[in-house]
Amino acid sequence: RMTWKQYHRLEDIHGFMDYLAKTYPKIVSVNSIGKSYEGRDLKVLRISDGKPSNKAVFIDGGIHAREWISPATVTYFINQIAENFDEESDDIRDIDWYFLPVVNPDGYEYTHIKDRLWRKNRKPAVYGVRQCVGTDLNRNFGYRWGGKGSSSNPCSEIYRGNRAFSEPESRAVSEFIKTSAANFSAYLTYHSYGQYLLYPWGYDNAVPPDHKELDLVGKNIAAAIQATGGSKYSVGSSSGLLYPASGGSDDWAKGQGIKYAYTIELSDTGRHGFVLPTTFIEPVARESLSGLRVLAAQLRKN
Ligand code: 0X9
Ligand code: ZN
Hints:
- Helices cover 35% and strands 20% of the residues.
- The protein has nine helices and ten strands.
- The strands form two sheets. The chain has an eight-stranded mixed sheet with strand order 1-2-4-3-7-10-8-9, sandwiched between helices. Strands 5-6 form a two-stranded antiparallel sheet.
- α6 (211-229) links the parallel β8 (196-199) and β9.
- The model has no long low-confidence stretch (mean pLDDT 98).
- The protein binds N~2~-sulfamoyl-L-arginine and zinc ion.
- N~2~-sulfamoyl-L-arginine binds next to α8 and β10.
- It comes from Danaus plexippus plexippus.
- Keywords: Carboxypeptidase, Disulfide bond, Hydrolase, Metal-binding, Metalloprotease, Protease, Signal, Zinc.
- The active site is at 265 (proton donor/acceptor).
């Protein structure tokens, strides 16, 4: 059974998604959009009442294996929206939601079994006579791939892969978004940690033409989060606020014309870091949902 008092294994997360599809067949469906390197499903859950006028939002989590609060938060969103769909606001019901809680299932399972602080996926790469495992999926997307803040060394934590979309996980996400009938107006990717709300560009110190809007909406989201749970999020461009890092999924989404592309770095600010105690799951997820409601309201205004 799914709870938000523990972190769950992939099997539980997938079981929970299938359960919702079975329980709410009119609004919830689950599809595998591909397989990870080790053959695990990349399961996307869709929530929609099928109105043709709906906008579409894509939300993912777990690109980085060790950031456990991310899949936990995304599954909280799924639960909240699916279980209470009829009572939800028009803002929420007028969106076709697509959730991929675990983009990197091989890495995620590896952090449960072998190495709690693993970041990358689990596909090996040869490096001279050595072999190293894993590509940083958030350096493998095909927008300005290969630039600053990424490495060509397979043994690096920020290894970009040998070409854009060399990894089955990043490729599946991009193919799904590109070929989907849904017209996405927002792409949210949940990471940890630091409490940041980041908009493009990540590849270098530059901002898109609509950065003022992205900044304003980001600040409104941050205000809602703080009002609900008290956590303070800093808002800014990825490169400006954090560091330049190319090949990120957010930059790629923005490059595809998805207006509201954000990376959300969830709690905390460093005391526990990636190894966030389970008592944080509910408060973090709850305040994050408040932020998501602000985005949903914004989409209605547009
Ligand atoms: O470095 C990353 O991939 C993200 N931070 S994390 O600590 N979760 O690894 C930030 C990514 C921001 N977006 C881009 N640089 N495109
Ligand atoms: Zn991350």
